[in-house]
Each structure stands twice: as structure tokens, then as C-alpha cells.
Amino acid sequence: MIMARFEGVFRKYGTVLGLILLVVLITIINPRFITLDNILNIFRQVSINGLIAFGMTFVILTGGIDLSVGAILALSGMLLGLMIAAGVPELIAIPTVIIFGALLGLFNGIFVAKVKLQAFIVTLATMTMYRGITMIISDGIPAMGLTSDAPILNFFSQGSILGLPFPMVLLLIVFVILMILLKYTVFGRGVYAIGGNEEVARLASLPTDRIKTMVYVISGTMAALAGVILTSRLSSAQPTAGMMFELDAIAAVVIGGTSLAGGKGRLFGTLIGVLIIGVLNNGLNIIGVSAFYQQFIKGLVILLAVILDRKSTR
Amino acid sequence: MIMARFEGVFRKYGTVLGLILLVVLITIINPRFITLDNILNIFRQVSINGLIAFGMTFVILTGGIDLSVGAILALSGMLLGLMIAAGVPELIAIPTVIIFGALLGLFNGIFVAKVKLQAFIVTLATMTMYRGITMIISDGIPAMGLTSDAPILNFFSQGSILGLPFPMVLLLIVFVILMILLKYTVFGRGVYAIGGNEEVARLASLPTDRIKTMVYVISGTMAALAGVILTSRLSSAQPTAGMMFELDAIAAVVIGGTSLAGGKGRLFGTLIGVLIIGVLNNGLNIIGVSAFYQQFIKGLVILLAVILDRKSTR
Amino acid sequence: NDDEASGADGDSIALLMADLGNPFFHVLRDAVVERGEELGYEVLVYDGQNDASRQPSQVEDALQKGVSAIIINPADESSSANALKEAIDKGIPVVTVDRAVDVDGVLSYLVTDNLKGGELVGKWLEGQLPDGGKVIHMEGVMGTAPQRERGGGFLSVIDPNENSESKFEIIGTAVGDFSMAPAEAAMSDLLARHDEIDAVFAQNDTMAVGIARAIETAGRQDEGIIIIGFDGAKEAYDLIEKGEMNVTAVQDFDFIGSEAVNFVDEYLKNGTEPEDFVLVDVYMSDSK
Amino acid sequence: MEVIMKGINKSFSGVQVLKGAGIHVKEKEIHALMGENGAGKSTLMKILSGVYTKQEGLIEINGQEQHFHSIKDSENKKIAFIHQELNVLNEMSIVENMFLGKEIKKKLGLVNNKEMTKIAKEKLHLLGLDVDPTILVKDISVGKRQLVEIAKALLMDAELIIMDEPTAALTDKEIDLLFEIIRNLKNKGVSFIYISHRMEEIFHLCDTITVMRDGSFVGQKDTKDTSFDEIVSMMVGYSLDDRFPRVEIDPGNIVLSVKDLNLNGKFKDVSFDVREGEILGFSGLMGSGRTDVMHAIFGSIPFDSGTISINQKKVQINSPIQAKKNGIGFITEDRKNEGLILSFSVAENTILPSLKNFTEKKLIKESKITGKVAEYIKKLNVRTPNQTIETNKLSGGNQQKIVIAKWLMTDPKILILDEPTRGVDVGAKKEIYEIINHLKKQGVAIIVVSSELPEVLGICDRIAVMHEGVLKKIFTRLDATQEKIMEYATGGGK
Ligand SMILES: Nc1ncnc2c1ncn2[C@@H]1O[C@H](COP(=O)(O)OP(=O)(O)OP(=O)(O)O)[C@@H](O)[C@H]1O
Ligand SMILES: Nc1ncnc2c1ncn2[C@@H]1O[C@H](COP(=O)(O)OP(=O)(O)OP(=O)(O)O)[C@@H](O)[C@H]1O
Ligand SMILES: [Mg+2]
Ligand SMILES: [Mg+2]
């Protein structure tokens, strides 16, 4: 009985097992891994990929993909940097760039939902365009030393609430909000339905175009929010920030058991996927694996995690 | 009548129109673009992306994707470099790395076809692994000056046949072979059938697993062949070669009208897609567009090309 | 010192490299590792893979691991500032090499003067071509400090827009991303566009090698196009020896690396504070 | 070919689907296999054709025991299988589809397109289909696609041909031709296993009938020695007295009024009214444009001109969202691609159009859903183990009921049902008619599009007949006969 229930949990959350295994293994090799300090450290580190991956989960659930998230992060981060550097009050600048991120997502969404182009190619193109715009507006020069006169921006990475780092708190709050949005709203059900079969969803009188547009808006918003945290963390806005972040986010979503075909998956899985990648990055550093081997091991663990997930959900 | 036939061609090959427009536009801005020298230069340059994109076309036609091509290129190029540097005769080294590329593709293929994991995540993981292996075997150090004692390797980029650069000749030969494979063999039919509906293909008693594995082998082989050309071209093997090449190849395939959902598309379209990207890269340099604007324009043109293709095939 | 199984909690130094994908930085890494091991330290090497956002995490991870000192080759001036501040607050000595970090309390920083290096290249070129000429500028990864500083220094001398006395003309600028293949491809395009080129400045040697190869492919190696690299990498000297390249602006990474370890060692053993700022000049060289 | 299957057992992930199933097909025989939806007919045939492997039991062909492990194994024994679902690739040409996996090769291993095209043309001609075999399958009608599948089987020189509901998408003319071909082949020694839910067809065509129920063999009868009623009661376990129940009520006011609806190339000047408590039937050949008209009314495809009025007021319907707001429900004909998200559960599918009704302060309440879905499962007598099972695990008839439940939950004033009983067994068909009648009594205006004449005549109050996009005639029930409807449907009449 208990065994069966146990099995049930793992069938449902195959990758939780993977995460536990990974944590145990790393802890055995170097027990310093499991200190409170380090755990908070990991959460602080994963918050950026986490936010992006949450947005990406919505997109992937509809059967789409968003390759432009890294570029949106860079562009909105740079905009934030330029605004702060130009003396715009941070209470204006921060919301502005988050809305700006939403607009960049809207642009993606319109091409996918209304013009009906393939998401992969739309966001590949906008990725290049957004990166180009970042370069143009910044002239390729990073904005530096941003947090010295911007306490709120600084709080985004350095602050803490009840002893927990603010990025971690933010990640968890966003997680809860998005989970409610996904599981308990008409919109969320629509996201799954579109991924399941768009035509069926349309004929069931769901506003499919609007929902499809919205998921890109969410993804863009999350990328911009991640951009704020990164800018805060680095105290600077880098024009080349966020390179390849899209791949880490997609990996987290897929490791978390969401199907790239859409319609099937959960946000909790993505959180686990994000943690697996975060633990892996941190753990390999803590163990002291040499840089070149880290890449190889990372790839291998991703492959194993997905195999594990597949075996358990069969 | 003539108008109608004209229209038919464009409906079938929507992007041909895009390519022509692009060429005309660039030529108007700077007529040096259209010199024989520069045209041969473009063909020499696109041969690398072209070969990879041809292999990618097979993968995408089955509904898969191969993100590891850039990494396979780097790894097989590095292996070639190390072998040549170690004094292995080039007539042994070159075929060896091409077979090696096929094996890396086979590894991808097995995980996709037999273990039945999603192609995106398999090749994302192997991309990381292959890049890690490249770093490990090379210690991150390029192999230099390879062609000085390797005339055959040198011929791969510097040679010419009947006045045409060898990479161009190779590209066209491979194009013809792969086109025959795709259009006139049972295997090629199977590739389309699997992309169209794998279940239907299975019920027609096609060896679907074998075909799916094979397309990754082809993709890996093409990437390795591209790796040989790049190594020859640079006369050196760079451990970080081929970064983001997968995106250029996928873009070429999609611009060429092949659907990422699989089952629909043609190799000729990919060739046009490759040329559009090549002409764009070269043209922007020839016109002298500033680097910051190049990225933006590239993204925009990709978007326009896909819209054009969609409008014409409606 | 609680000696753990990993042994890494003894006297270890974390070396954070910005990008080991760039082989030239291996010189710096090797210098630090070699000197460190001579002095009995374990050196843990981290690779930032050319991504500024990785380094703060690596600093945090190194602190978690309990290293005794940090030598960092920062990806830029500010990204790892917050993380390094934490280290400094914990009393761990931090030495930055090749680039400064905008944080108080750094033990020392040893830096190649990239701006001055760029100017030096410009001046060297003026010396070669007193009557000016047509110049191509191959830039590294846009937005990175070496790209801005080397380019800025170079242009301040050569670009007529910035230096009215310059007799040069910049006929083409392209981005080679500090790596060989894009530099080679962009150079091929520029060769197709320009019949007359007098000199090319590549912001690092890897790109210079690609440029030389593109010139060879175009069959224009006999036009006497001057190729200038930056770094002082082995491959540059090889080409210079063969007469396919002219000169490179050398950064003395051997010196910077071993000196950084010396500073840390002195501080840990005797509490000696070194000079807080060591500026290492670039020099032009055409032979190893 | 003589085939004996005996004591066949098969389970899927622990659920036993076949228990002691079997069939005995003799040489030169057309053998019907009958049973309710989900009885296991298709599964049994998939075992005979090597798609699945059996767990227990015996398969004998011409007296020899067989162990099929793959489709190739059964093909080698000259067994061809035309599956229930259309198995064609829309993006490939007819000839490519026909020869898929069986291409004729030249030397060098290249495919011989010329030869294949020639043969394809011949085989298609046999089926009365004179199209260019090199055109893409997506450019021919669904009925023709079915014929392509049949042509595929003819290619094999099969000695046993299994047909799983081959006529579901064919016109009467095509069906007649098909039957002629089947009889011809039979005379040449080919045996057939024929699965269909159309009782008339079975009695018209088949020599022998095997009935199965709940995965088991129930009995075998010679067609000439049995009756509709006997077979039906063997299938469902009880006798079904009236196949087409009807209720008579006086229709009320005009609810839906369509005037001069046009869509270039699809339909022309279509006008009709539907009243409260009235069932308007739509008859016609496949491809006569009925489905397109319904989609236009529902807003899921745009139309060129014309007006739609509801309760005498002109309305603008540009999307299914507006259609629903105007009280229209639409049960689409293609349950797999338009009706259900097959990977979703019964509950998730059922609530899709009425999601908003389950919210409180914008948040969905799970508890509300469970109760409501249970109510409809009971009301429509849906046979499902629970609400959370994926719909692709249900039989066709029960899937269809879920699609109906989905729209009933929105309380439509106007309900359009497009081929509501396609592929549904006799028992479930009757249940669906009863649901329709119940709605009629509640005053819903109902449109039933159907290609089965007995059904249209059995349940509708008036019958509209379409031909090539034109609404030719609207009969009242008393005027309508099969012959008259066919006359108009094929372009005759005045
Ligand atoms: N692959 C499968 N996995 C699980 N259950 C299955 C599978 N295939 C069929 N079943 C179940 O087996 C039972 C028999 O299905 P089958 O398709 O053989 O019925 P059928 O008699 O052909 O019905 P219909 O007349 O609706 O086509 C059904 O309950 C069905 O849900
Ligand atoms: N899924 C489909 N794909 C392509 N063409 C189709 C499809 N469904 C119908 N058609 C074609 O569209 C035309 C109009 O068909 P429509 O469905 O409106 O007619 P219908 O009278 O309802 O016939 P059916 O019962 O076949 O749907 C016909 O030529 C039909 O064959
Ligand atoms: Mg069936
Ligand atoms: Mg219809």
C-alpha cells in the first residue's frame, strides 16, 4: 500500500526522485553542499532561470516555444540600466521595463497567434532583432554601478525577507500566482486545451488567439522581471546578457515533464527542473569538478533526468 | 497564362522571390555585390551552413530537431585537428572524423528513436556533452597550422574544380545525392511519412525506428563534413567552433518552407534558405552596415521571408 | 581548517577565469596554477564561459567551498562586485587580474592597459605608414571591455573623426566575435568589397589568424596587407615567423598571473599588503 | 483463405479488453464482425494483422498455426487491413500513399514512379476513381481518401481483406461500387472480414455474421438464417424494440433563420428556418456542403454574404465565441480532430465550452465541476469508469456522448449536430436519438446533418436536401421518402 502510494508520487513527479538523488550524491561527495547558506545561495542563483522557465512553461503548454527570452532579458535589463543611469527614479523605471518586456512578448504573440507563423522561427527572428536593438540603444556599452543610488533595485538581489533572499521570495510568490493562473482560471485551462488540440479549443468557443498571444506576454514579462533581478545582481546592465538562457529555461521545462508538443505538464515540474539545473551548476562547483568536465556532466545529467522521467511516467 | 504559371512558381517556391528581391536590393546599394568573385565567395561561405542545413532538413522532415550539429562540427573538427597534428595521414583522418560524426548522430538517433525521448531535449543534452568532450580532448586549445602539410585537407576549402570553389562543388554534389535520397528512395518516402504521421508510417510496416535513427546519422555526418571544411578553411580547429550554427541551419530550413511539424518541405527550399542567410550576411558587410544594425536587420529579414513564404503558399 | 575528504578546504585559491574558450587566457591560467602549486596551494579553476552572469554564482560557490583566496579575471567591472564584497567582508583576499572590479577592499589588481594597448597599435601603424592608408578594423564581441577599450584606443589614433591629424581611412569595420570563423568570413566579404587594403587591426590574435587565412584564400597574400593582432599568442608568432602576419600587441599574462599569486601568498603568510594597483604595459612584438 | 481465431485474450495496462474472442472465416466468404462500441472488434483485427500481439489463444490460417509479431508477418500471409481511422498522409500524393512501404524499385534501388503511377491509376479506376494519382491526398475529398485506402489493399493481392468501417465516409454511389468490387474479389477466392455499424449494409453484403460483446465471442449466424432483431439483441444483450424513437410536439416560434448564405466554392444562397422544438434534418451526398454551412452559422469559418437571424433579430457571428453567446451549440462531425482533446480527461473535455460557469470570483472550483459532470454522465448514460480517464480510452459511442454533453452543458437554444451517430453502435445510436428528443421537448431548435437516410427519416420533422452547395428542397416528414431525397441529393428533382 505505502509502497504503491510512494510509487504513485514518483510516477507523477518522476524528476523529484532525480533531484533527491542528485542532492544526496553531491552531499556525500562534499557535505558543505547541504549548509543552509548554500541552499539559500542556490535559490538566489536559480531565481533568474526559474522566472524565465515559468513563463516558458505557459508557452510550451500551448505547443509553442520562445527563443527570445534571453534577448528580452538583455533588452529590458539594458533599458533599465539606461534609465537608472539617466536618473529616472527607480520606482518608475522598474515597472516600465517590466511592461516593456510584456510588449516585446506581445510582439512575438501577435506573429504567432494572428499571423500564424511558427513560434520557433518568430522568436528566433525576434531574438536576433531584440539583441540588435539592445546593441543599438546601448552602443554596445554596459551600464555600470547601477545599484549604488538605487536601493530598491539593489533589494531585488541583495535584499532579504524573513531571512530568505528576496529573489527566492519573489520566485516563490510568482510561482504561486502563476500556478493559480494555470490551474484555477479559464485562461489556464485554455492554455492546456490549445496545446491539446487547438482546433477543438477554438470550436469549444475558447478565445484561442488571445490565449496564445497572452502566453508570450507572460513569457516576456517574466524575462523582463528576470532582467531586473540580473541587473540588480550584477549592478550593471550587460548588452550581451542572457545568452543561451532560453536553452536553460527550455531544458528546465522539459526536465520537469512538460511535453514540447503541448497540452501536458505542470508548473511544479518546471520548478523541480529549475532546481535540478541549479543544484547541478552549484554542486559541480562545490565538488570542484574542472570546468571542461562540468559541461559534459551537465549534458549527461539532463539526459538521465529525462530518461528517468520517462520511465516513471510510463 | 504566363502570369499564372509565374505565380505558380512563386507559390511553390515562395522564398525564391525573397532571395531575388534581396539580391536586387543589395546590388542597387552596392553593385560590387554581384561580381563573380563575390558570388563564388558567398557560395564558399554558405557551404558550411548549407551542409548542416541539408542534414537538418531530413531531421525536421521527420518532425525532429537537431541542436547538436554545431557541437558535432566542433568535436569532429577538433578530432581532425588533433589527428593531423599527431601526424595521422589525412586520407585516414578525414574519413575517420566523418564516420565519427555519423556515430555522434547515431547516439542522438538511438535516444530519439529507441528510447523515445523528445529530440529537442536529447540533442540539447548531447550538444552540451559533445562540447564538453571537445574541451576535454583539446584542453581548450586550438590546433593550428593544419593545412601546411595536408594538401587534401587544404583542398577542401582552397581547391577549385572547373573554376568553382571546391566547397561549392561539394555542396552541390551533396545536394544532388541527398535530393535523390529524399525523393527517389524508399527511405526518403519514409522520412516524409514519419513526419506526416508516424502511426500511419508504422501501420504501413515502415521501419520507423530505423528511419528516425538514420536521419540523425545523416545530420551528424553532414555536420562532421562541415567540420572538415571549416577546419580546412581556418587551417585550424577551434574548440569553440560552430557556436549557434544550429540556429542558422534551422532558420535556413524553415525559411525554405519546411514545416517544423514535419512531413512537409523540400531540400531545394533549404538551399534557397541557406542562400538567403548567406547573401544577407555577406550583403550587409558589402554594404557596410554597422554591426549593431546587422543583427536587427537579419532578424527582420528572416521574419519577412517567413511571412512572404506563408503568404505565397496560402 | 577542518580537513574534509575533498581536501579542498586547506589552502586553496579560487581562480575565476572569464573565458577559457579563448586559448590566450590559458597563459594566464597556467601562470597562476603553476605559481600557486609551487607555493603549495591547490588552485581551483572556474570558467565563466564568456558570460558575465556566471561569475557571481561562481564566487558564491567558491565561498561555500571555503577557499582561502580569490583571484579573478572578471568579465567586466561590476558584475561580480556584490559577490566579491561578500568575500572581502569575510576577510578573504581578492586579487583581480586583467580588469578591475568596482568594489572596495580588493587586495590588488593587476591589469593590462587595453586602452593604451589600442593606442600603441595605432601609433605603431602610424609609424609603418606615415602617409596613412586604408584600414580595416575587426572587432571582438560587442559590448565587452576589451572590444571597447582596444577599439577605442586604436580609433583615437587612427580614425580621422577622432584624430584630425590622422591620414588614415577606416574603410571597413566588422565583428569577428574574438573568434576565428566569423572573422575569416567577415574578412572574405571585405576582401570582395575592397580592392585596396593597407592594414587590418584584429582585436585579438585568433581573429588575426582567421584574417590571414581569408587573405590567403582570396589569393591576395602578396599585396602586403599589414595584419596586426593583439595578445601575443603562440599562433600569432607562428604566423609572423612565416611572414603571414606582422605584429601583435603583447599582454604579459605570465607576469600578471604569477605576480597575483605572489601577492596572495605574501598576504596570507605575512599579512603584507601589496600595491593595490599594478598597471602592466602592452608592447608590440614580432618575435617570441 | 480460411482463418480461425480462438480463445484470444488481450489486456492493455492491466485492463482485459479481449477475453476468449474468436472468429472463423471460411474461404470465399464475406464475414461480418459486429458488436457494440468498445466490444473489441478493432482490437481483435489488430491482432490478426500483427499490429498487436495476442497474449493467449490460437490463430490458424489454412490449418496452420501462426504467431504474428509484426505487420510484415501478416502481410506476408496476404492479409490486408483497412483501418477504422483514415490512415493516409495528407501531404503526400495518392500514389505515394498507396505504395508506402511497398514501393516498386528500379535497379539502383530508386523508386519507379512511372510504374507505380500506372498501377495506381488502374487500381483506382477499378474503384471508379479516375483522378490523377500524383495529386496530393489533401486535395481530394474524405470519401475519396477512403477509396485510396481500399485501393492500397487491392495492391497487395491479398487473400483476406479486413475492412473496419470502410463506408463511414463514402457516398451511396461509392458504396455500391465498393460492394460490387468486394463481391467480384470474393468470387476470385478472396475472403473478407467486414466491420460496420450500419445494419442495412451487413444484411445486404455479408454471408456470415460473428457477434462479440465485452471482448468475448457471442455467436455466429448465417445471414440468411437470422434477423436484425436477433443480431441486435446478441450485440447489446437485450432487444431493442424501436430503432428510431420519436416524439411528436408542435413546433413553436422560428428561432434560427438563415437567409441567402453564400460562400464562394462551397455553398450558394442557402436559406432555411428552424423552430422551437423542431428537428430539421440535412441530407445530401458527402461533400454537398452541409458541414460548411453549419460551420458558417457557427462562426468557425467566414462566409461571403447572407444573414443569420436569431429570434427574428439579425446577428453578427464571426467566431464560435459569439455563436455560443447567441445560444448556438455545435457538435462537429469529426470527433477526433474537432470534438475532443483525446489526451484530456472526460471531465476536462466536457467543461471546455462552459468553463466560465464553474468559476467563483474568476477562480475555477473543482468541486462544482465534479458534480456537474457526474450529472451529465448519468443523464446521457455515458459508460466510463470515472471522470478522470482520458477520452481516448473510451469507445466511439461514448466519446460521441461526451461531445454532446459538452454542448448540452452550455444550455443551447439552437443545437447543430453534424453526423452525430457516425461510427456509433445501434444501442448508443438510440440513446443519442433519445437525448435529441429530450432536447426537442424542451424547445431547443435542432439541426441534424446526417448521411444515413433511415436516421434522417426516422427522427427529423423536416428534411433539407443539399446538392453541390445548393439547398434543393425542404421536405416535411410525411412527404419524404428515401427515393425522393436521393433524387434531389443527386441533382435531380425540380
Ligand atoms: N491501445 C489501447 N490501450 C488501452 N485500451 C485500449 C487500447 N485500444 C483499445 N482499447 C480499449 O479496448 C476496448 C475495445 O476497443 P476496440 O477499439 O477494439 O473496440 P471496437 O469494438 O472496435 O469499437 P468501435 O465500434 O467503437 O470501433 C475499448 O474499451 C478500448 O477503450
Ligand atoms: N477534412 C477535410 N479536409 C479536406 N476537405 C474536406 C474535409 N472535409 C470535407 N471536405 C471537403 O469539403 C467539401 C465540402 O464538404 P462539407 O463537409 O461541407 O460537405 P458535407 O455535405 O457535410 O459532406 P461531409 O459529410 O463529407 O462532411 C467537400 O468537397 C468535402 O469533401
Ligand atoms: Mg473499432
Ligand atoms: Mg459533413
From TrEMBL, chains A, B:
Keywords: Cell membrane, Membrane, Transmembrane, Transmembrane helix. It is found in: Cell membrane. The chain crosses the membrane at residues 12-30, 42-61, 68-86, 92-113, 120-141, 161-182, 215-235, 267-284. It is a multi-pass membrane protein. It comes from the Bacteria. The keyword Membrane applies. InterPro entries: ABC_transp_permease. This is Ribose ABC transporter permease. It comes from Evansella tamaricis.
UniProtKB/TrEMBL annotation, chain D:
This is Sugar ABC transporter ATP-binding protein. Residues 3-239, 249-493 form the ABC transporter domain. InterPro entries: AAA+_ATPase (IPR003593), ABC_carbohydrate_import_ATPase (IPR050107), ABC_transporter-like_ATP-bd (IPR003439), ABC_transporter-like_CS (IPR017871). Signal peptide: none annotated. Keywords: ATP-binding, Cell membrane, Membrane, Nucleotide-binding, Repeat, Sugar transport, Translocase, Transport. One of its GO terms (molecular function) is ATP binding.
